[in-house]
Amino acid sequence: MSSGRSARHRGKLERVPESDIAEPKQPRAGARTSALGRVLITVYLILAIAATARSLYQIISEFDAAPVAYTLSAISGVVYILASIALIKRRGAWRMVAWVTLAFELAGVLIVGTLSLTVPEWFAHASVWSYFGMGYVFIPLVLPVLGMIWLRRADA
C-alpha cells in the first residue's frame, strides 16, 4: 500500500504523494479579531493615550494639588497601555498579562471609585478611576468587564 491519496485527473485515477497534498489552512492565531475585539482594543488605545497624557500633564504642572489622584491616573494610564498590548497580542504569556491587567483595572476602578465616594478629601481632583470613571463616561468601569467577556469567549 503506497502512501498518498487518489485524485481524478482527466477521468483517470492517479496516486498523489502525501507531500503534494496541501493541508487545509488554519487561520493564524490572532489573525481574526471579532468586531467586539476591534472596538475593545481601539477604546483601550484611546483611553491609554488620554489617561497617560492627562496624568503626565497634571504631574508636571500641578502635582502638589492632588498627588494621590494624579499618581492613580498615571498608574491607570500604564495599565491601559499594558492591557492594550496584551489584548492585541493575546497569545501565550500575553493572554495571562491581559487577564491580570483587566483584573487589576477592575479592582482599581472599584476600590478608587468607592474611596472617592467615602473619603472625598483624598481626591481633591478626580483621577481616571474616581467615581467609577464618571469623568470618562464610566468607560473605565465597563471596559475591563467587556475585556474579560471577550477573552473568556476566545478561550471557549
Provide the residue-averaged pLDDT: 84
- Shape, please? elongated
Strand order of the largest sheet: 1-2
Tell me the Rg in angstroms.
24 Å
Helix content: 55-70%
Please characterize this protein's 3D structure.
Strands 1-2 form a two-stranded antiparallel sheet. A hairpin with a 2-residue loop joins strand 1 and strand 2. Helix 1 runs antiparallel to helix 2 (67-89). The protein is 60% helix and 6% strand. With 156 residues, the protein is mainly α. The protein has helices spanning 35-62, 67-89, 93-118, 139-155, and strands at residues 5-9, 12-16. It has one domain.
What's this model, at a glance?
The protein has four helices and two strands. The chain is mainly alpha-helical and 156 residues long.
Topology of this structure?
Elements: E1 5-9, E2 12-16, H1 35-62, H2 67-89, H3 93-118, H4 139-155
Antiparallel strand pairs: 1-2
Helix pairs in contact: 1-2, 1-4, 2-3, 3-4
